[in-house]
What does this fold into?
Amino acid sequence: MDNMQIYARLTDIFHDVFDDDSITVTPELSAADVDGWDSLTHIRLILTVEKAFKMKFSTSEIGKLKNVGDLVDLIGAQAQPR
Amino acid sequence: MNALYAELHWLPRVPADFTARLKALAGSPAPLGRELQALALHALDLNQLTRVAKAMARARGAGKSLDPLAPFRLAILSNATVEMIVPALEASAARHGIALETILPPYDQVAQEALIPNSMVNSSKPDAVLFAFDYRSLPLKLTLGDEEAAAGVVEGAIGYLEALRNGIKAGCNAVCIFQTFAPPAEPLFGSLDRALPGTLRSLIDRINLRLAEFVLGSGDVLLDVAGLAETVGLAEWHNPQLWNMAKFSFSDELIPLYADHVARTVAALRGKSRKVLVLDLDNTVWGGVIGDDGLDGIQIAQGDARGEAHLAVQRLALELRQRGIVIAVSSKNTDEVAREPFEKHPEMLLKLHHIAVFQANWNDKATNIRAIAEELSLGLDALVFLDDNPVERGLVRQLLPQVAVPELPEEPAFYARTLAAAGYFEAVAFATEDLKRAGFYQDNAKRLSLQKQVAGVDAYLASLDMTITFQPFDATGRARIVQLINKSNQYNLTTRRYTDPEVVEAENDPSVFTLQVRLADIFGDNGMISVVICRSGDPETWEIDTWLMSCRVLGRKVEHMVLRELIEHARAAGIKKLVGTYKPTDRNKLVVDHYAKVGFTKILEEESGLTRWEFPVNGEAPEAAPMKVVSLFAPAAEGSLV
It folds into this structure.
């Protein structure tokens, strides 16, 4: 899975989770930029990502996320065959 | 995770236009209740539920009415994070006809909110208070092996809940909804945990029992979360990572299921539980088609895997009847044929006297179900309709959206479980009168004469996106052709049986015109559903030797399309006249008027009931039905046919 594909799926997920089809998903996008991205919605976002990509993140991995770029890196790393 | 429960498989899949319909709500005039309920009546995940709840909030914000949803105010007291659950509750309540308004005091203010008379919860005067506690909210101390101390811990926990209840009763007199407690998945000793007093498992077991007794005695309401967690599995229910990260007391993946159970309970409190189970017969109550397979051919015996699946449906229906649910039947069948298994099959659990209204005829099911509701003097929203056929389910859902129609899996063994999981008959109390209720309807069982069809059947048929395919007999279709010729009893004009070699003969005889018909629709391919054989009779005449159709596609105007196809080929072959025969048997009363209905003129009627009919090939063909026609005939084949 390349980054293009990850961003494409994340865009759908963001629209669904935030109920807002106007969100453009970029690496720099973070909680400060999106209306309604509070701590609970953040968890709903992460849970939705885990389900959509069929992967699980550790609590510390989730704790370190600062923006969408970090999230994409995390997904990319798990998608690699280990 | 078991998908039936986690993904609410009794509800239809989310439609492709879900987002568009949600958006359209903003522009549509109030009241929005019906459309919100229609959207919520799909298998929504947490994000989709949240989006429906947001649309409801926007509608409320804009001052729009949510009628006809019934308003209900629910306060939630919890030791866990419930903010993410609340939108799911609101959307799930809409699914059950409730406009839910939630009152959510700040985190971990349980005792203050219950006990202080002018607290946020008490002063908001809710209709009900949900104590959404998990075991971590209770003062539980391990008292291993100490019976007396264990009893003290149990009484302490119950006393705490009782004190909270009394606070609410004094403060606002709302209905109290208590949850049983799901024990943690992790054992201490192992199996001994269940037996030894004072282990967490043993304490929670006892608290649940005591709580259930207490609730039954006090007139409060129980939500059996422990039962729900057992059903899906404790290891699936509890997610320690989510508890640590955000204080979620159970897995996010089970929020839609939990929310639906809360909504059912609230709907039951508002008297919205269903009261009638309407059963299809063929392939629902028994395996097979009684009209074709006969009394000996249907599968309903103990010891036969398929039969036992359908017996489980019957057993569930009987048990529901025992608790007061009315049982009715809606079947596309000749009445006498449909009653035969009830009267004569020794393995049938359901008997005719269990059934309040028995509707077996050839009308569409929406018309029949409406008649059942009228006969019972109940609203359509009291009915549940169980049918294995997705086309029938879709028709009833579209024309009678108030009727609950569960989706069913492919495998009949899961029919009963799916119906039970949907929780249509949720009850918050049980009175001895309930035991007699089903009997009140007993004497009313009679067949209704139905004239008018529910409007909109044609539009529904068009929405099925049907494709009908015509072909002459060939080697590929032969096995199924032989099967249909030898099995079809009901939609069969002459009931002539032919062996495989005889069918090959017809296939190769240039003087015989053969037709195999397939039908596909949005639900999939129905396969071969009709067979016609015409033989050259008098000059320029085709004698319709065989015309049969599978009853599964009844009411779709397939027979009209078949005649149109016949006419076309007859014209090409220089034929002037089609002649058909209806030869009565004890099974084919359904088609006594077949030829009249498609435009033939009667030319003969015998004592025996046999009739002969003719149709001039240059006459007016029946109107085309809304389906795509594919005709796979080699052009050369036509010329050789006289």
About this structure: Residues 1 and 80 of chain A are 8 Å apart (CA to CA).
